[in-house]
Write a structure and sequence with these properties.
Chain lengths: 342, 315
Amino acid sequence: MPWSRFDREWTEPGEGRILEFKDAVREAIDQAMQLDERVFCLGLDADDRYAVYGTMKDLTHPERVMGTPISENACTGVALGLALSGMRPIHIHMRADFLPVAMDQICNYIAKWRDMFDDQCKVPLVIRAVIGRGWGCGAQHSQTLHGLFARLPGLKVVTPATPHDAKGLLLSAIRDDSPVLVLEHRWLFKNEGPVPEEIYFVPLGEGRRMREGRDLTIVANSLAAVHAMKACESEGIDADLIDPRCVKPLDLPLILGSVEKTGRLLVVDYDSPFGGFAAEILAQVAEAGPGILRAPARRLTFPDRSMPASGPLERRFYPDVQRIAEAAHRLCGDPVAAGGVG
Amino acid sequence: MTERTGIRPEQAMKMLRTMRTIRQLSERIIPLYPKDVMETPVHLCIGQEAVSAGLCIHLRDEDLMVLGHRTHGPALAKGLPLKSLVAELYGRTTGCSHARGGSMHVYDGEHGIPGSSAIVGGNIAVSVGLGLGRKLLGSEGIGVAYFGDGATDAGVFWESLNFAALKEVPVLFLCEDNGLSNVMPKSEHMFADPARIAGEFMPVYRADGTDVLSVYEEAGRAVAQVRESRGPAYLHCTTKRWMQHQGVLEDDLPYNPIDPEKDCPIVRFEEFLLRTRLATPGELAAVGEEIERDLDEAFAFAEASPYPDPEAMEV
Ligand SMILES: Cc1ncc(C[n+]2csc(CCOP(=O)(O)OP(=O)(O)O)c2C)c(N)n1
Ligand SMILES: [Mg+2]
């Protein structure tokens, strides 16, 4: 389905004002810009009429939003320079697939800058990029890449799943004095949930238990967390669902505590498998908690290939609610209904 | 319309057929697209047909070209069969990229298209490599870097110009300048005239990209320059994008006004063909009808072709 017709998939229950994910992002940026005049946004198409899927719409300070040419590598260097000169830049990308164009600046400069000079300077830089499958967009416009970027020492990687976390994590990222990459899944933008009106901060590195359960621990972030939640609700899975919220820094204690309780671990990671986020969690759990697993840990990820364009292949490439449910049942030794999406 | 008489009738008709194929394919896609039978973003080439047609008539299969995201026009002009393009748009295994590519990623090894890329800019460097490879292997072929005005924003464009000039690479840089990068007008994304600066590195040619004869002439010179010198050249074609950047709606940007007669490369060329008696009204109508039949066949082929098997995704 093209974006224009893609609708809300989930509403987070809770009290208070309800906002869409994209409006929560917008509010974080708007409030940060009002609070601190050093906050400055730049990015390709950041200032055009589509306003980055609405996340940059009607800001109080449009004069601090700068559109850029198709020069991602140079502009990422400019963003680092802005941060080093005392500003608090937010560099915005319509798609995370454009970040590899700027890999030199991200990998060789930004991630390493504080460490190379033994922390004598701050790098208060946020890179915001939209991730996720499009609609027949193929290999170059459907990537997630959070596992790749988390490999870089010095870079924090944040992946909100709910409107509440989208706002609170982005505000923390903007306040942070180190570079933070915030990856927002395009499929979450119309989801709703309670979002406080005032400024608040979700600490980077603090995960969240989305629901309590006994049979297994599911760790999932970003869109996968929402799908895991839906799988538990609709398929009667009694899982402890942990959304780490940050790929890095990773809230290992929260995950370990849960696995100690359930003895089973499924990581759902909408990214490629090799050496990725799921692999890292499995490795850390194996290291820190030998013997706490009653069954082999399992991960559900993309296949280790590029995203295909054709509809049937593309739909198969992304795990979904059904396949999460199946993986959870299998891990618990439950019979898996025949005829399910295998 | 430029008045030139040197063109041979069969070449004139070939360019017309190419332009009409690109146009009529787009016109087929427009009403079908909202039905979701083509699940892939499309970047249509309506208004820009003359650039692909006027360039590719000078190219051979051994000339290699890696395209950007706006593939349909240049790919068809270079020789990609209509039905393998349509089948790719339909996500079928018979498509030119076997259903893995979609609209932005087309492949045709036989006709010198070793792929296309939707990350703006990078294909320029790849095309320089194609040219260098042709030279190193002793082929007569050349590389062609086909890109939009937006791609000149990227460092890789300037690095590629420098490399191609320094290393004498037989590559043609073809800038299809529709004055827009998505909704951004050129004045907002590029400070200088890239063609003027390219002149510091290599011979530069300029053409009116809404006039296929202008492109035909200048591309003829530019391609000959690359073939004979075994070094680079640059051709800048200004043109107009009639549709929105992506999708099947007409463009509505106030700074991109379209005159459907004066800006139309096909209207202008057909008028020329009639005036110079290179074609009769009946012959022109026959071209259009023939293409409609080709399109019927291509769409029927695509619709009858199988989808790939999703189970093949398992690793
Ligand atoms: C590196 C990169 N940044 C941004 C984009 C998003 N994008 C796709 S096409 C496009 C505009 C390209 O303009 P131009 O090169 O003039 O080609 P045109 O679409 O006009 O043919 C943009 C910004 C991209 N694909 N790649
Ligand atoms: Mg353009």
